[in-house]
Give the backbone structure.
Amino acid sequence: DAGVIQSPRHEVTEMGQEVTLRCKPISGHNSLFWYRQTMMRGLELLIYFNNNVPIDDSGMPEDRFSAKMPNASFSTLKIQPSEPRDSAVYFCASRFRTSPTDTQYFGPGTRLTVL
Amino acid sequence: KNEVEQSPQNLTAQEGEFITINCSYSVGISALHWLQQHPGGGIVSLFMLSSGKKKHGRLIATINIQEKHSSLHITASHPRDSAVYICAVCGGSNYKLTFGKGTLLTVNP
C-alpha cells in the first residue's frame, strides 16, 4: 500500500486566498484525522471522521476552516480566506478501526505558508 | 499547562550511548503512543502502550499507569536515530490524542 497520500506537499499563498489540502487515506481504514503542527503549539487535532462522518470538529480554529470527506478514499481541508497565522504543517492520518490502541498512519504533511 | 509533558526538550548524545526520553501525563488514559518525526517532517508510530513494556529492535518503551509515566529507551544509539520523539496519550475518547511538545534527539557520530 502507498500509505496516506497528501497533496500538495508545499503550498505558498497570499493572505486572503483560498487553500485546499487533500488527503487519500489507506484503503480499508475507516477513521481519518486532520492535524496541524506549529512550533508554538505542537500537534493539534483539527477534525476526526469515522466512516466518512465528522465526529469531532472542536479543534477547527474558526469558520474559515472546513473539512469534508465525500467518500472513504478522499478528504479535503479548506481554508478560506487564509491568514498568515495559518502557516503550519498540516497532517492527515488514518486508522483501521476506532480503537484507541490502533496505530494511526500519518501522511507526509502539507507545509503551508501564507504570506 | 500541557496535559502531556516530555523531558528533556533537547538531548544530544554520542553514538553508542543509551538514551532515555520521559513522558508524564496528568489524565487517565486508555493508550499511550510514541511517535518519531525525522527532519523533513514524516511522522511514524513507534509504539502503542496500555501497560507494561514493549521492545522493537533497539527501542524499548515502558509505561507505569499508576505513576502516569512512560519512558522511551534507545540502546546503542546511532546517528540515524536523530529525530523528534513525540509522546501522545489517548484519554477519555477512543480517538483524540493529546501530544507532548516532543524531544529533539541528536546523535553525533
Observations:
- DSSP finds no helices and eleven strands in chain A.
